[in-house]
Each structure stands twice: as C-alpha cells, then as structure tokens.
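One record is kept unedited as follows:
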Amino acid sequence: MIFSFIYLYKLLFIVVIFFDLSHLEQFRWVQKINTQVPNFEKIKDVKIMKKTFFDYLAPKIEAQNQQIIQLRQKIKNNLLSQQSLDELYKKYNVKTKNTKDLLINLDIVPVSMALSQSAIESSWGRSRFAKYYYNFFGLQCFTKNCGLIPTNRDKDAKYEVRKFYSVDNSIKSYMLSINRNPAYKQLREIRKEMRDKKTKITGSSLAEGLKEYAEIGHIYVENVKTLIRQNKLEYYY
C-alpha cells in the first residue's frame, strides 16, 4: 500500500514537471475571455470568412471612433477641466500641452485601415494571439513577462506579444498607438492635412504613414492598401 502511494506520488511529480506550463497558462486565460468571438478557422468559404471577420470587427472599431469624436467635441467646446486635459496630454504624448496639438493626435482611425491591418496581423483572426489573447493588431510590449514570446522570435529580440481580455481593449490600444507613437507622426500629419482641407479621411491615404508598423516598411504599406482595395473596405465600411 505504501509502495503504491509512493509510486503514484512520483508519477504525479513527473507529470507536473513535464507538463507544458504554457498550455496551463493558455487554459487559464481562455477561461477569462469572452467566447463569443467567431471561430474564423472553421469557416471554409473564404468570402463568408472575410465578411464575418469584417462584420465582427467593424462595429467595434467604429464604436471607438465615436468615443474619440465625442471627446474631440468636448475639447473644442472647452468642456474639459484642466486636470482632464493634462491627463490627455500625457496619454496622447503631447508635450506642448496645447489643445490644437492634442486634436492632431486625438483623432479617428479609418475603419478600412484598421480592418486591413487586423486581417494582416491576426491572419484573419486565426493566429493564436487573436484566438486566445484578443491581439488582432500584432501589438507588442518590451518588459519581461509582459506578454507572450512568439516561437519565431530572434534569440536577441526582447519584445513580447501583448495579451488582452477583450477585443475592445485590443482596438483601444491599437488606436492609442497610432495616435501617440512617434513612429506614426507622418500618418497624423496626413490626417491633419485632410482635416484642414475638409476631405474624407481614408484608410488608403493614412496607410502611407504606416512604414514603421512592420519591418518590411513600404511593402507593408502596399499590403494594407491592396487589402483595402481588393475587399472594397472603403466602400462597405
């Protein structure tokens, strides 16, 4: 009896030692997330899969844009306290603490561009980062254990892939990055110019400022624009 107990104890110890803890972590994370995200991988018809993908994300992206529009109106109408403005200056990386400069950074992201990038970055919602961690935009972080280490990461690289508890949080972080990161200053300048000219802000135009989003630079820009054009995203969304 004692021998059997010791044997079982050793067997359990071995199982624990050799169990892939990454699967345990993934299991725990999945228990916390909303399971209502469509399973894009199971949709075999490509046209239906694409439409399902776009229709799922587009309203969520538009909802975030509406929040930005409402906030812009409050700034223009002087409805925010100085404390609120100071928080926004910090959040959107506006060193001048000037509302005109704040409005340059705090602006909408075209739904067509966001959809195109999410399709590219998440492999149409089928990557494990999108399926299990709601990261539809390839967003990264740079402190140890801040996210997930991709299997194909270079050994000298320090970045990790961020985890989110909802698609909405992923979209918010993506838009904030577009609106505050120095790497996308050109994009914001293009957007301001379109605002000044009172022309429609389009994904194809703003995509020119995405050269720093991926290592492939201008090729990435062309990929984003091509996906917008081929799927008629500016027409439908």
In short: The domain at 33-236 is CATH 1.10.530.10 (Lysozyme). Strands lie at 140-141, 160-161. The chain has one domain: 33-236.
